[in-house]
Structure formats: C-alpha cells, structure tokens
Hints:
Blueprint: E1 2-5, H1 11-17, E2 23-25, E3 37-44, E4 48-49, H2 51-60, E5 64-71, H3 81-90, E6 94-99, H4 104-117
Parallel strand pairs: 1-2, 1-3, 3-5, 5-6
Antiparallel strand pairs: 3-4
Amino acid sequence: MIVVYDSLTGQGKRFADKLGYPVEDIRTFETKADTPLLLITRSFNFGEVTREAAAFLDCYHHLVIGVAVTGNRNWGANFGAAGDKIAVTYGIPLVLKFEASGMPEDVTKVKQWLDRHHHSNTHQRSDHHGHVQNHG
Length: 136
C-alpha cells in the first residue's frame, strides 16, 4: 500500500504522513507494479479535480482503492467536490472529506477503512455509495 498525495499547501501531505504507510508525491510517483494506492487529493476552482490528480488517475485508477479529499467547509456544496467527481468518473470509493490536515478522528476513519478494504478488496471496485464520511 502506498499513499499518494496531491498537495499545494502541504495539508494533504501532512494527512498522508499520519496514516502509517509509505507516502509519495503525485508529481513524482512512479508505478510500483500492482501495489494498491490510496489517493489524498484536493479540490480547486470551486470543486474541480486537479490536473495532477486527473493525469494520475488516467494512468493508475485501476490501482487506486480509495480517495480522501482535503478542503474547506466554507466552500459549501463544493467542499471536497473533487472526491465526488473522482468517485463517479473512476468508480473509486470516496473514503473521507476532511478539512485542513485532518483531525485525529479523520485519520482514524481512514485507517479503519483501509484495514477493512485494503486486504480483502484490493483490486475490486465496490459501489462508492455509503462510503462517504464527513467529519462533523
């Protein structure tokens, strides 16, 4: 398992570092054969998927078992909207939307999700409905 992060301000990297798995920057990632990946990304321009994340997913979506998105709740309906778009476009479960670099309970939720899904469903796409969790 490798956590790949797409971070402009460092928030996504800080969250990725807390998960306890090897971490790589999306801009320098090189494939590791069939290693499962978790993508930590962000939204830009009112909820759009970043160019970096779109290019990464075009190449590696078949290895990505889940996505978590950092954002700011001030964006309202666009909070973490890139995660919703990734889930629909690529069929990748949206694990979590979180603010800034995440609260401890956000890290726990993602770790628990990985424990449940990493080993048993590494290369299977499950229905992403019901996997969205928001830190309240």
